[in-house]
Amino acid sequence: MGQLVAVTEKPSSSRGVVRFEINRTLSGMGHEHFGSVDDAWGTTPSDELARRMFATGQVEAVHVYANIITVDLLKGCDSAGLSDLVRDLYQYWKPGVEPPSFEDLQPEEAASAAPSGDGDGSGGELSEAAKRVPAHLLDRGRLARERWNAKNS
User: Fold this and answer.
1) Average pLDDT for residues 145-153, to the nearest whole number?
2) β-strand partners of 20
3) Tell me, what's the pLDDT at 109?
4) Could you write out the three-class secondary structure of the chain?
5) Binning pLDDT at 50, 70 and 90, where does residue 112 land?
6) How many other C-beta atoms can be found within 10 angstroms of the C-beta atom of residue 74?
7) Which domains does the chain have, with CATH numbers?
């Protein structure tokens, strides 16, 4: 599952540099440069792609601008396999791999963190649908309703 990214690999006029053009933007209108894996500390798609590329041992630096990815290769390395990394960036399920269930993806919450009401201010038990919503979101909604009611009453 997940969509594959359409990738076109283009050589650069500079030796040891390869450029990938893709069918979606990774960085918006901002430039992102990664000189090492330590620079890719965030959670953006650009950060994840840079981490994956550095893990191959072929890459010296990665630059991302919108839908253009420019890769400086280490001396003596080629770009074999890098376009596959870009193509599979958003593919989170592959044939033969069991996808996680909804329950597996939910964080464990302490019983005391659950709100006492069902979110509508009645103070009753949680509905089945409300039990699937994280407690902090139910609390945030309840507090927003209380503010709105105080302001409009």
Assistant:
1) 88
2) 9, 69
3) 60
4) CCCCCCEEEEECCCCCEEEEEECCCCCCCCEEEECCHHHCCCCCHHHHHHHHHHHCCCEEEEEEECCEEEEEECCCCCCCCHHHHHHCCCCCCCCCCCCCCHHHHCCCCCHHHCCCCCCCCCCCCCCHHHHCCCHHHHHHHHHHHHHHHHHHC
5) very low
6) 13
7) 7-87 (3.30.1370.70), 109-152 (no CATH)
Contacts 24+ apart (CB under 8 A), 45-53: 45/89, 45/90, 48/89, 49/85, 49/86, 49/89, 52/85, 52/89, 53/82, 53/85
Q: Which tokens belong to 6? A: 């359409």
Q: Tokens 């040891």 label which residue?
A: 16
CA distance 70 to 20: 6
Residue with tokens 């507090």: 143
96 in the Ramachandran plot: left (φ > 0), alpha (ψ -120 to 50) or beta?
left
Tell me how many degrees the CA angle 59-65-68 measures, rounded to the nearest 5: 70
Q: Please state, in angstroms and rounded to a whole number, the distance separating the CA atoms of residues 75 and 106.
A: 44
Q: In terms of pTM, does the model score above 0.85?
A: no
Any bridge partners for residue 62, and if so which? 34, 71
